[in-house]
Design brief:
Elements lengths: L3 E4 L4 E4 L7 E6 L10 H19 L3 E6 L6 H10 L3 H18 L15 H13 L3 E3 L5 E3 L15 H4 L18 E6 L9 E3 L2 E5 L1 H13 L3 E7 L3 H16 L4 E7 L2 E3 L2 E2 L10 H6 L4 H9 L7 E2 L2 H19 L13 H16 L4 H21 L4 H18 L11 H15 L3 H13 L2 E6 L2 E6 L4
Parallel strand pairs: 3-4, 3-10, 10-11, 12-14
Antiparallel strand pairs: 1-2, 5-6, 6-7, 7-9, 8-9, 12-13, 15-16
Helix pairs in contact: 1-13, 4-6, 6-7, 9-10, 11-12, 11-13, 14-15
This protein binds adenosine monophosphate (AMP) and zinc ion (ZN).
Length: 467
């Protein structure tokens, strides 16, 4: 079955065909590192992780680039206020971003280019646009993109921006541009920029935000590549402007498939720093919430649907993960040898899992297939004993599925000394048939978040998923 993705450019689900067979090149808009990312941002990065992991599951060789925006108005404002140079100012947030990616089990992209390391590439692109007469200089030395010189403007956002503001000249001092719809490619230095500037062929100044993604995507992926992603708020103006800059400069088509994820919401509003209604990942982790539950919550709704963030959802996610992990554990004991019996069940649900994801990453359908698989195997084993071949195949299937979900592997936390002693004391109490004492210790451990299970192979412990 072909893989189909919803392409924002055409507003249709389209069969995915890479430019080069077997290889996918994709660009994802990354964080502006002026603060810690909130979990709304991570909804976008988890959607991109699902996309990346699924493409790899299908056998593609994926090259992903995610930019790090380490210079922009907010960074300059904050760094000047605190008198800390931008590189120093952004470093902790940048480090925190990578820690957060790891905490959420997001696979690393191949490249994380930082804007400040690519000023020459941006300058070169702006020069090409100037030479072609698509960029123009304003009186203050800034360079703007002349939207009227690029006929395709507005094709991604499907807004008739081309006509909307045509001819309306901007009088405001703030805007040195000819028309309101024109946007900055290069911003000449102003006093409030303080120490933040580059002296380049374009003069003393700094790049606009949009040019960063055009220059860096082209450097690492070429003029024309397969997939570009981001949150829906990136569609306009950011991605529209990227297309305009890149296509005007190269004369080639920029990107084949544009994929955008909907927002994470809080009580009907987009979660955002400016609205102040956000949760930072680290705040949730500090409360003891399991990152796997956060990952599952952000992953398990279709990326094109708005997702309302609630603590009930986190709790439900924790329960789903526990069921999956318990099922996995139930397959790891000793089984007698025999002939494989469960192949039909596996094939049926693995095919369902794959065809759901083939349909524009329908994760709910895919998770439905995983839970049905689990249910059918459990029903089967009620009537017939599983053999070691069955257990092995089911485990391998779970591993394959988890190459996408990435929630099955429990962080093997160590027990504290006190916890170990309590578990040993309980084992002694059980040996002595002191059931009341054994139950008391079990309850005490439960208060520490440790669940004990007495199996024929002995007592095993697990940590409760905190949500
Ligand atoms: P920013 O740091 O604001 O440029 O955002 C980085 C990424 O997070 C972009 O792809 C945004 O579209 C995305 N994003 C920001 N807020 C949300 C949200 N509430 N839900 C989903 N994605 C978001
Ligand atoms: Zn971007």
């Amino acid at each position: 079955m072909p893989t189909r993705f919803y392409n924002t450019m055409t507003r249709k689900k389209e069969e995915f065909k890479p430019i080069k067979p077997g290889v996918v090149r994709m660009y994802t808009c990354g964080p502006t590192v002026y603060n810690f990312a909130h979990i709304g941002n991570f909804r976008a990065y988890i959607f991109e992780d699902l996309l990346r992991r699924y493409l790899k599951f299908k056998g593609y060789d994926v090259t992903q680039v995610m930019n790090i925006t380490d210079v922009d108005d907010k960074i300059i404002r904050d760094s000047n206020e605190t008198k800390i140079p931008i590189a120093e100012y952004t470093k902790p947030y940048r480090d925190a971003f990578f820690e957060d990616l790891d905490a959420l089990g997001i696979e690393r992209a191949e490249y994380y280019p930082a804007a400040t390391d690519h000023i020459p590439e941006m300058v070169q692109l702006v020069q090409i646009l100037l030479e072609k007469g698509i960029g123009y200089r304003s009186d203050d030395g800034s360079v703007y993109f002349k939207v009227s010189a690029y006929p395709g403007y507005g094709k991604l956002a499907h807004l008739n921006i081309g006509e909307m503001h045509q001819g309306s000249r901007v009088q405001s001092d703030e805007y040195e541009k000819e028309e309101i719809r024109d946007f900055a490619l290069w911003k000449s230095w102003k006093e409030e920029d303080g120490e933040v500037y580059w002296k380049t062929e374009l003069g003393k100044g700094r790049p606009g935000w949009h040019i960063e993604c055009s220059a860096m995507s082209t450097k690492y992926l070429g003029n024309h590549f397969d997939i570009h992603t981001g949150g829906v708020d990136n569609i306009f103006p950011h991605h529209e402007n990227e297309i305009a800059q890149s296509e005007a400069a190269t004369g080639e088509k920029f990107v084949n498939y544009w994929l955008h994820c909907e927002h994470l919401m809080v009580e009907g509003d987009k979660m955002s720093k400016s609205a102040g209604n956000f949760y930072r990942l680290r705040e949730l982790l500090d409360k003891g919430i399991d990152p796997a539950a956060i990952r599952y919550t952000l992953l398990s709704s279709h990326y094109r649907q708005k997702l309302n963030f609630t603590f009930d959802k986190l709790e439900a996610a924790g329960k789903s993960i526990t069921r999956l992990r318990d099922f996995k554990k139930s397959l790891s004991g000793e089984f007698k040898k025999g002939q494989l019996q469960v192949n039909d069940i596996i094939e049926k649900y693995l095919a369902e899992f794959e065809s759901a994801l083939d349909d524009d990453l329908n994760i709910s359908g895919a998770l439905g297939a995983v839970f049905s698989l689990m249910h059918e195997i459990n029903v089967f084993r009620q009537g017939t004993e599983l053999c070691s071949e069955d257990a092995c195949v089911v485990l391998k299937t779970l591993e394959k599925i988890d190459s996408i979900l990435n929630v099955l592997t429990e962080e093997k936390e160590k027990l504290s000394d006190e916890e170990t002693q309590l578990i040993e004391a309980r084992a002694t109490a059980r040996k002595e048939r002191n059931w009341a004492e054994a139950d008391r210790i079990r309850d005490q451990l439960l208060n520490f978040g440790i669940i004990l299970e007495d199996t024929p192979q002995g007592t095993v412990w697990k940590r409760k998923i905190k949500t």
